[in-house]
């Protein structure tokens, strides 16, 4: 039975691509410390229906630790996420802090660049949009 559990866990890890697990408190700490550019993974609830702004799908989320963030998902590099207000998501990307301060996450796509050196993604309804 123990061997079966190890095989099942390995298959799950491979199927999920070994993705990062949410660290909601880590995101909260990065925001408190103004760590713009930090790679973050967190749980959130969609606060606004997404709108298309140029080649980005933009929407607001509320984290489990109470922060509101803007998500800038580049739809020229990743598939559109069929979200609606109230949906639960997991987001992996790069934290940015604009004047105000206004917090957001971008680089939620697998295609990397000098501005987005780490692949990102959005998990919604057991699907990954990257």
Strand order within the widest sheet?
1-3-4-6-5
Reported for the largest beta sheet, the result is:
5 strands, mixed, barrel
Q: Give Rg in angstroms.
A: 15 Å
| Share of residues in strands | 35-45%
CATH architecture: Beta Barrel
- Give me the strand/helix succession: HHEEEEEEEE
Low-confidence stretches: 4-16
Report the CATH C-level class.
Mainly Beta
Shape: globular
Helix content: 10-25%
Fold blueprint:
Blueprint: H1 2-15, H2 24-32, E1 39-46, E2 51-53, E3 56-63, E4 68-74, E5 88-98, E6 102-106, E7 121-124, E8 127-129
Parallel strand pairs: 4-6
Antiparallel strand pairs: 1-3, 1-5, 2-3, 3-4, 5-6, 5-7, 7-8
Descriptive notes:
The chain has 130 residues and is α+β, with helices and mostly antiparallel strands. The chain has a single domain, classed as Beta Barrel (OB fold (Dihydrolipoamide Acetyltransferase, E2P)), CATH 2.40.50.140. The chain contains two helices and eight strands, in the order H-H-E-E-E-E-E-E-E-E. Strands 1-3-4-6-5 form a five-stranded mixed β-barrel. A hairpin with a 4-residue loop joins strand 3 and strand 4 (68-74). The radius of gyration is 15 Å and the shape is globular.
Give a nutshell description of this structure.
With about 130 residues, the protein is an alpha+beta fold. The chain has helices at about 1-15, 25-30; strands at about 40-45, 50-55, 55-65, 70-75, 90-100, 100-105, 120-125, 125-130.
């Amino acid at each position: 039975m123990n061997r079966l559990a190890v095989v099942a866990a390995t298959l799950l890890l491979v199927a999920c691509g070994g993705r990062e697990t949410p660290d909601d408190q880590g995101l909260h700490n990065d925001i408190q410390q103004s760590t713009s550019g930090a790679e973050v993974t967190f749980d959130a609830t969609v606060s606004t229906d997404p709108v298309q702004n140029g080649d980005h799908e933009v929407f607001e989320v509320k984290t489990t630790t109470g922060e509101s963030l803007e998500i800038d998902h580049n739809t020229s590099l990743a598939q559109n996420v069929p979200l609606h207000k109230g949906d639960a998501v997991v987001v992996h990307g790069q934290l940015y802090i604009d004047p105000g301060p206004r917090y957001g996450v971008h680089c939620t796509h697998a295609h990397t660049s000098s501005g987005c050196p780490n692949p990102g993604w959005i998990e919604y309804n057991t699907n990954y949009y990257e």
